[in-house]
Amino acid sequence: MSKGLSLDCVINEEALKMIEQKYSSLNLPITPERKKMAELPRGSKVLRNPVGTAPGFAVKKGDFLVVGFPGVPQELKEMFKLYADELFPPKGEMVEFFVKARGVPESSAAPVVERLVKANPFLYIKSHPQSSEGSSYIEFHVYSVTSDPRIKSACERVAKELASELIKMGAVIV
């Protein structure tokens, strides 16, 4: 990853101390292979591994945050749970509006959804085909994560516009 980021790969002293402590507690020596786990991109923040030994890291490169976790699935999952909020803080609250429509195929609604999302890139529209008591319908979720009240209003407006467009296509809003 260091090479891909155009950063030097260096022994991170904090990571090395974590690794040394782990193997010392197991009465095992630090071998070159074990020491290699401390090689991280220069400038990385070390992420403690609560399950295994190899640390993870986070490093800023331009406008991007690059995160590396060990490849063992259980380690990766636990580290993501531990660091997700710190590394990827929410940028506001979830704003969500629902539109339930009967009588229009999801594929027919897709161009309308695409147009609305393209015109409003701050939101996302997800369609969920459903079936209940022998009747099918599509539940559309119009949502965004925001702290801006204007975006909340815009999401509501887009949900109403979606309902209106679906009605023009013959749908019944339920």
UniProtKB/TrEMBL annotation:
Domain MoaB/Mog residue range list: 8-84
Organism lineage string: Archaea, Candidatus Marsarchaeota, Candidatus Marsarchaeota group 2
Domain of life, per lineage: Archaea
Source species of the chain: Candidatus Marsarchaeota G2 archaeon ECH_B_SAG-F08
Protein name: MoaB/Mog domain-containing protein
Pfam families recorded: MoCF_biosynth
Coiled coil feature spans: none
